[in-house]
Design brief:
Structural class: alpha/beta
Number of domains: 1
Mean pLDDT: 95
CATH class: Alpha Beta
CATH topology: Rossmann fold
Low-confidence stretches: none
Strand order of the largest sheet: 1-3-2-6
CATH architecture: 3-Layer(aba) Sandwich
Number of helices: 3
Distance between the termini: 26 Å
Shape: globular
CATH superfamily: Alpha/Beta hydrolase fold, catalytic domain
Radius of gyration: 15 Å
Largest sheet: 4 strands, mixed
Helix content: 25-40%
Oligomer: single chain
Number of strands: 6
Strand content: 15-25%
Order of helices and strands: EEHEEEHEH
């Protein structure tokens, strides 16, 4: 499996068929590994779910060890909007790749996130 965004994947236990996915988006300066920790408890209650936790598509401007979905270093609403639209397109491509890889329909995917990742999930889910 190769996707346009590097990701941490937490698969169901052995012999469990994957029936749906939860895509968890990290916050500003975080990464997929950070937010994947949520899946450790959730997977007990969602045994046929794969948790997919991608890294943002660019390094974070204030935390070079983390990632961002869009740059927040400039106090310019037009710039931030432009950057968020670019990130939405990248994330939309990623979701399409997930759908193709697992033969999922939209109803089999939950998109959620924390902080900036939550903003991205709200924007994508409102398309």
């Amino acid at each position: 499996m190769t996707f346009c965004l590097d990701s941490v994947m937490v698969k169901p236990e052995t012999n469990k068929k994957i029936k749906n996915a939860i895509i968890l988006l990290h916050g500003y300066g975080g990464d997929g590994k950070d937010i994947s920790m949520l899946s450790l408890n959730w997977k007990r209650h969602l045994p046929n779910t794969i948790f997919i936790c991608p890294n943002g598509h660019e390094p974070c401007s204030i935390n070079p060890n983390g990632y961002q979905w869009f740059d927040l270093s400039k106090d310019d609403p037009e710039y931030i909007l432009d950057q968020s639209i670019k990130a939405e397109k990248k994330l939309s491509k990623f979701i399409d790749e997930i759908k193709n890889e697992f033969n999922f329909e939209n109803k089999q995917i939950c998109l959620s996130g924390f902080s900036q990742g939550c903003m991205m999930s709200i924007n994508i889910n409102s398309w």
